[in-house]
Amino acid sequence: MVLETLLLSGVLTLVLEEDGTHVDSEDFFQLLEDDTCLMVLEQGQSWSPKGREKPKHSKDIARITFDVYKQNPRDLFGSLNVKATFYGLYSMSCDFQGVGPKRVLRELLRWTSSLLQGLGHMLLGISSTLRHVVEGADRWQWHRQSHLHS
């Protein structure tokens, strides 16, 4: 149906518009971010960066955009998307997702619990080591005194 609508036929290849990476599996397709631009290439066609060449007299080295948004009105912190484009040719982005107050509290409690558990293990190890050192010193002192008396 889609092929007929787009007037396409034959062997088709799906690639990322920005760099020509082949989208060759359903798993890879599921990993793509929303609003990813794709290209469909017919047999014999290939991706090329035409139209993406840096203008000869351009002084544009990097363009960075920040997009702050909330996915849910109850989110404690907003989300942040940072996109950097270098020389007008290469771009990359990073998305920092904000979370709600319950999740922030849950993560804080989880980290605190892990920290206290680690501290408890460390204290048990230290006390066990000290017990062995003291017992060894007592045995050494008793052994030394028994040699002095004999």
TrEMBL record:
Organism: Apodemus speciosus
Signal peptide (UniProt feature, chain positions): 1-17
Name this protein carries in UniProt: Cell death activator CIDE-B
Keywords assigned: Apoptosis, Signal
Gene3D superfamilies: 3.10.20.10
Domain CIDE-N: start-end pairs: 1-49
Alphabetized PANTHER family for the sequence: CELL DEATH ACTIVATOR CIDE, LIPID TRANSFERASE CIDEB
